[in-house]
Write a structure and sequence with these properties.
This protein has five helices and eleven strands; from the N terminus they run E-E-H-H-H-H-E-E-E-E-E-E-E-E-E-H. The protein is of the alpha+beta class. The chain has a five-stranded antiparallel β-sheet, covered by helices on one side. A hairpin with a 4-residue loop joins strand 10 and strand 11. The termini are far apart.
């Protein structure tokens, strides 16, 4: 029997019985839900801690490996620098020491020097020195061929590097008329437009003289660059032979750019010479060439302007 709100007894209905049964069941379900939630939460926290610990361990391992790699690389570079320094000193001393070395020793020392230091030294004077040394040698033809071969190999290596970021064109000079050969006949000059890093420049080549004995050409290169209504002009004259290496023997242009001319072939009997003009960024020059500070600053400012979001740009004032 159950009592109503007035205290009178009444018969229990189905709802009263369900309430009696469900009250403890509800408590049981609540306890089970709390237990399951607690277990799931603790399991999640534990697995998260495990993942974070594994991540920390990987990061520590990566940092350790990075430090180890950096240290090993630094030590290897130090040992290589020390070896190159000793090698350079030994080879240079062999040229400067008193007492005459044999032509074979001179040529061998030059080959060692060129193959190891061609990106950082202007070795043309040494090539000319060796040419004078071997002038009276009975093996002059053999030594000359070795000099030309090593010079050609170095030029090819340097051209492969600088043309990764540059461009070029070829030309054939007529040694008899001091002109350039073309499909329409010989012309007194040759002009080509080359574009690099968004900058278009016109290169005009002229042959001023030719020396068949030393297998060299005297050239004039005039570079014109259009800047809006203004045209910048750079002109230079130089002698070109097999011992001019483009990473070292080049001409500086505005915006940290360079151009160089190399001699591919000098055919004195046929009266022709094949040359190549290369136009490339300054970062491909030899180790002794460094950009000017104003050029570095201009590049940094230009990159900063490119990276600025459009919405942050100031709105121009109305005219």
């Amino acid at each position: 029997m159950a009592e109503d709100s007035a205290g009178r007894k009444r018969e229990r209905d189905g709802w009263d019985k369900a309430e009696i049964i469900l009250k403890p069941v509800g408590g049981l379900f609540t306890a089970i839900a709390v237990a399951v939630l607690g277990f799931w939460t603790s399991n999640y926290v534990r697995s998260r801690e495990v993942r974070e610990a594994a991540l920390r361990e990987r990061l520590q391992t990566r940092d350790t490996n990075a430090r180890l790699y950096s240290e090993l690389t630094s030590r290897r570079e130090e040992s290589e620098s020390a070896l190159r320094k000793d090698m350079f000193k030994s080879i240079i001393d062999s040229f400067l020491r008193s007492g005459r070395a044999t032509p074979e020793q001179e040529v061998l020392n030059l080959e060692l020097l060129v193959y190891n230091f061609h990106e950082s030294l202007n070795l043309k004077p040494l090539f000319r020195h060796i040419e004078r040394v071997i002038k009276d040698s009975p093996l002059r033809a053999e030594y000359t061929a070795r000099l030309n071969r090593v010079a050609g190999e170095v030029v090819k290596k340097q051209m492969l590097v600088i043309l990764e970021g540059g461009t070029s064109f070829d030309a054939t000079a007529n040694l008899k008329t001091l002109s350039f050969r073309g499909p329409a006949g010989d012309a007194p000059s040759l002009a080509k437009d080359l574009v690099l890093e968004g900058i278009r420049r016109n290169f005009k080549l002229e042959v001023l003289d030719a020396d068949r004995k030393s297998e060299s050409l005297q050239l004039r290169v005039t570079v014109r660059t259009g800047q809006g209504s203004r045209v910048e002009t750079t002109s230079t004259e130089f002698w070109l032979d097999y011992f001019d290496f483009p990473m070292i023997d080049n001409t500086r242009l505005p915006h940290d750019q360079r151009f160089a001319v190399i001699l591919n072939n000098f055919d004195a009997a046929g009266g022709s010479a094949d040359i190549t003009l290369a136009f490339f960024p300054g970062k491909y020059t030899g180790l002794r060439e460094k950009p000017y500070y104003d050029e570095v600053l201009a590049k940094l400012l230009a990159e900063g302007e490119k990276g600025t979001p459009a919405e942050t740009e100031p709105t121009p004032a109305p005219r």
